[in-house]
Amino acid sequence: MPTGASILHADLDAFYASVEQRDDPRLRGRPVIVGGGVVLAASYEAKAYGVQSAMGGRQARRLCPEAVVVPPRMAAYTAASRAVFAIFRDTTPWVEGLSIDEAFLDVGGLRRLSGSPVQIATRLRRMVGEQVGLPITVGVARTKFLAKVASGVAKPDGLLEVPPDGELAFLHPLPVERLWGVGPVTAAKLRARGIHTVGQLARLDVPTLESLLGAGAGGHLHALAHHRDPRPVQVGRRRSSMGAQHALGAGPHSPADVDATLSGLVDRVARRLRAAGRAGRTVTLRLRFADYTAATRSRTLRRATDRTTPLLAAARSLLRAAQPELARRGITLVGVAVGNLDDAPVQPELPFTPDRGVELDNAVDAVRDRFGAAALTRATLLGRRPGLEMPRLPD
DNA sequence: TCTGGGGTCCTAGGACCC
DNA sequence: TCTGGGGTCCTAGGACCC
């Protein structure tokens, strides 16, 4: 385990909303919501009214009627993310991206070259502010887990170091919800036992926790509460799945409607795979029934592919098999994900591959590259609205 | 509180192989 | 006819995060 507090967790504040405020001065100081049907990001002015990301748009507007609602501009967020990650990698080669707007940085061993971790974090925050124009919070600690908790406590626009000799003193007064991995379900179980703080959690023995939360989660949480969970910063992590989904209204929805939506989703995912140079073996159909319970059906192909045709065939056969259940229970969401991702196989030169599927995919991709994603649409999808996309790990 | 759209990780059972 | 143990892969569900 590292001895000094040399892991940074750097996390852009209200990322999409901050980009909007940066690019439109009229939005500064005002509550801003990015997204329409669902809140993708809320500025801190909007959060003060209780608006949270992932909240339904209607509820958000009820909480904060004066909020300015702007549609997402993914290209702007991607560009800002690239600029910030360039600064991360300028700081240290040991960068583990977690999502479009946060990363772990290991700055151990840079002391003589760059100064103490807190000095490095201070400089990092200044550079992101000056060069990209965005606020960013940094947590500094001995482990990734604690650095992440620290940045959460320090937000927004903050810097917080947890010194190695002050870890439990920092951790134990915190509410259990602050722990990375404790969500609503676990928090409710703990609350029911009168456990509200990390300190109370730490006093429970492992068997008690395991009986409450299951063998794996119980032991893991015990380790977290005592801060015994070192994990190294992993450079060059790549995404392991890629998917798209679409919520359907209450319905009813004909099998043809659902199939058309699924085709559009597979189109999108396959195109993103090809753009990223990835290919996948496992096709997962994601379903949500009328009662909002979820289910998945998956199938693993013999070889990884980035081709629309085989991916669509697999997705369709899963949907066909689920049709009787859908007829019975109704459907409110359909999605598809491609997992088991690998680098895309190298395509042989065109003259040697009279493969109509490859040629069609390439032609469709080329048209969309030049004229935009909406330039070509499946006939069955005409009149439907495309959904939103949110990139995560770098491809 | 009526419900997005992206993801990751963990668990558990069954098939299959040695 | 019954009997071990271990490892990997596949499938499905669920919790959690942004």
From TrEMBL:
Site, Substrate discrimination: residue positions: Y16
Entry-linked PROSITE patterns: UMUC
Catalytic reactions on record: DNA(n) + a 2'-deoxyribonucleoside 5'-triphosphate = DNA(n+1) + diphosphate
Pfam families referenced in this protein's UniProt entry, alphabetically: IMS, IMS_C, IMS_HHH
Main localization (coarse): cytoplasm
Keywords noted in UniProt: Cytoplasm, DNA damage, DNA repair, DNA replication, DNA-binding, DNA-directed DNA polymerase, Magnesium, Metal-binding, Mutator protein, Nucleotidyltransferase, Transferase
UmuC domain location: 7-183
InterPro entries hit by this protein: DNA/RNA_pol_sf, DNA_pol_Y-fam_lit_finger_sf, DNA_pol_Y-fam_little_finger, DNA_polymerase-Y, DNApol_IV, PolY_HhH_motif, Rev_trsase/Diguanyl_cyclase, UmuC
Keyword DNA damage: yes
Active site: E102
Cellular compartments annotated: Cytoplasm
Binding-site list for Mg(2+): D11, D101
Gene Ontology CC, one term: cytosol
A Gene Ontology biological process term: error-prone translesion synthesis
Cofactors required: Mg(2+)
Enzyme Commission numbers on file: 2.7.7.7
Note on how the cofactor is bound: Binds 2 magnesium ions per subunit.
Family annotation (PANTHER family): DNA POLYMERASE KAPPA, DNA REPAIR POLYMERASE UMUC / TRANSFERASE FAMILY MEMBER
Protein's job: Poorly processive, error-prone DNA polymerase involved in untargeted mutagenesis. Copies undamaged DNA at stalled replication forks, which arise in vivo from mismatched or misaligned primer ends. These misaligned primers can be extended by PolIV. Exhibits no 3'-5' exonuclease (proofreading) activity. May be involved in translesional synthesis, in conjunction with the beta clamp from PolIII.
Family, similarity comment: Belongs to the DNA polymerase type-Y family.
Protein name: DNA polymerase IV
Organism from which the protein derives: Micromonospora matsumotoense
Gene: dinB
